[in-house]
Specification:
The chain has helices at 28-35, 41-49, 120-129, 157-165, 167-170, 242-249, 296-300, and strands at 2-3, 6-10, 17-21, 26-27, 53-55, 58-59, 66-67, 72-76, 80-84, 89-94, 98-103, 138-139, 148-154, 171-181, 188-197, 203-206, 213-224, 228-235, 272-280, 287-291. It is α+β, with helices and mostly antiparallel strands. The chain folds into two domains: 2-82, Structural Genomics Hypothetical 15.5 Kd Protein In mrcA-pckA Intergenic Region, Chain A (Roll), CATH 3.10.290; 89-300, 2-Layer Sandwich (Pseudouridine synthase). The relative contact order is 0.12.
Length: 304
């Protein structure tokens, strides 16, 4: 359940609720005044303002929300507190098993041997421990520090193992948008190579089969001008720095990516954003899909 700027959780303690069935079309305020005659108009307004009214499991704050026959209105008599979003990332989905976040560029996913600064992992750990000191989160995959976008964490070791063991079958789509240097003339393409990492942590790409880990990247051109191209990139494999290396392979490095041959830095950040994550929920089996907007600064490069 998501509201702007925060996530709803109820205070601990037994929750008292009243469930009301809608038998005729009405506006929410009028319905509540009839159904709960002991409450005044201002008291009902206060319940709405404090996110204590939901219609078919969705929190509603508008007093004139239209009700349909058969819907269920729940009044939650326990005050709800709104948690603030942690700094540096947005939680876009959370249940008892997983957390999906949108990470900002510049934030490490997890700490490395040399860097112990704040990371997406440490921020989220702190966040879940505020509710219960025993709560933990578990890493499933990472994004490079300078890549923004969608990431998922597990809330138990069991869920982490189940997702990682069946990652290929579970993850239905991982797509990115990338701004690359120059005009990409081929509208659609697939890049296949074998990647190995040097002692200096640079990934090298080889066309020789089995000379490293096989990496397959598909791309489609969304926008282009004489300076840059905006690509939608789909990963068939998830190797370290895969998109960055493959863009260098085709002669169009990701903007801002000095490590892999970029000469242009128009945004002061890497032009790479993890846009879509779709997967089968490890517990319910339902398909969960989260899609973010293309960053505005990417689009601005194509607006003239």
């Amino acid at each position: 359940m998501q509201i702007p700027g925060g996530k709803l959780i109820t205070k601990t303690g037994k929750q008292k609720q009243t469930c009301l069935k809608v038998s005729e079309q009405a506006e929410l305020m009028k319905f509540l005044l009839v159904e709960i005659p002991s409450k005044s108009r201002s008291e009902v307004k206060s319940l709405l303002a404090h996110h204590q009214i939901s219609v078919d499991n969705e929190v509603i704050t508008q007093y004139n929300h239209p009700l349909e026959i058969g819907q269920e209105v729940v009044v939650n008599w326990t005050k709800v507190l709104v948690e603030q979003q942690p700094q540096g990332l947005n939680i876009v989905f959370e249940d008892d098993y997983i957390i999906i976040i949108e990470k900002q560029a510049g934030l490490l996913s997890i700490a490395t041997a040399t860097e112990k600064e704040q990371t997406a992992y440490s921020i989220l750990s702190e966040h879940v421990k505020k509710r219960d000191a025993k709560n933990k989160i578990f890493v499933l995959h990472r994004l490079d520090r300078d890549t923004s976008g969608v990431m998922m964490f597990a809330k138990s070791e069991k869920v982490q193992q189940s997702l990682q063991n069946a990652w290929k079958e579970t993850v239905l789509e991982r797509s990115y948008v990338a701004v690359v240097e120059g005009l990409v003339t081929q509208e659609l393409g697939t890049i296949t190579s074998w990647l190995t990492e040097s002692k200096a942590f640079i990934m090298y790409s080889s066309r020789t089969p089995n000379d490293g880990q096989k990496a397959v990247t598909h791309y489609k051109v969304l926008e282009k001008n004489k300076h840059y191209s905006l690509l939608e990139v789909n990963l068939e494999t998830g190797r370290k720095n895969q998109i960055r290396v493959h863009m260098k392979d085709i002669g169009h490095s990701v903007i801002g990516d000095k490590k892999y041959g970029a000469t242009k830095h128009p945004l002061g950040r890497l032009g790479l954003h993890a846009r879509v994550l779709a997967f089968k929920h490890p517990i319910t089996g339902e398909e969960v899909r989260y899609e973010t907007d293309i960053p505005k600064e990417f689009l601005n490069l194509f607006s003239h």
